[in-house]
Amino acid sequence: MTLAMNQALPPSEELVTIAAIRRPRGLRGEVVAISLSDYPERFAAGLSVWLRPARGAARPAVIERAWFHKNNVILKFVGLNHINDVEPLTGCQVCVPLSARVTPPPDEFFYDDLIGCQVELMSGEGVGTVVDFAPYGGGVLVVERVHPDGQRQEHLVPFVRAICPDVDVTAKRIRIAPPEGLFD
């Protein structure tokens, strides 16, 4: 059986983080990680991933096994069989190529797909650009508006269907029907 350990990431491929490694677990090469995915199947045995340190290049790895324990995911990678092999992984992100990302169900979106979307009123008038997403309540878009004089202003727009009825992340556009006074 050939493992994906020697696969190179295409230079144009973006990585998406699915977990963050916190620390080694035991002596047999397991690590404790925080799952950043809503999809537990992302950690299936045999999945090729990239381990990206805070500094330096990402390196390929293959998940040998994974299970959830106390709000964490325990990961064991193929070929890393001792604590000395995984201690340097503390702080690494476990990533997959953007092309391997799970497709969310209809009317659900990934935070990073919302960033950069142009926000406009239902009439087509531009409001600004989504620069962040805050997970307060159901979620809040942080929209930056640049005025003609160059002054920047941030607005918080609740990310709910009543206010954001038309979301098209492919076109990078969100059309909103804000309640009166939202931009005052």
From TrEMBL:
Cited Gene3D superfamilies: PRC-barrel domain (2.30.30.240), RimM (2.40.30.60)
Listed InterPro entries: PRC_barrel-like_sf, PRC_RimM, RimM, RimM_N, RimM_N_sf, Transl_B-barrel_sf
Domain RimM N-terminal: 18-98
Main localisation: cytoplasm
Domain Ribosome maturation factor RimM PRC barrel: 112-182
The UniProt record lists the keyword Protein transport: no
Alphabetical UniProt keywords: Chaperone, Cytoplasm, Ribosome biogenesis, rRNA processing
Protein's cellular compartments: Cytoplasm
Functional summary from the UniProt entry: An accessory protein needed during the final step in the assembly of 30S ribosomal subunit, possibly for assembly of the head region. Essential for efficient processing of 16S rRNA. May be needed both before and after RbfA during the maturation of 16S rRNA. It has affinity for free ribosomal 30S subunits but not for 70S ribosomes.
Domain notes per entry: The PRC barrel domain binds ribosomal protein uS19.
Family indicated by similarity: Belongs to the RimM family.
Description of how the protein assembles with itself and partners: Binds ribosomal protein uS19.
Record protein name field: Ribosome maturation factor RimM
Recorded name of the encoding gene: rimM
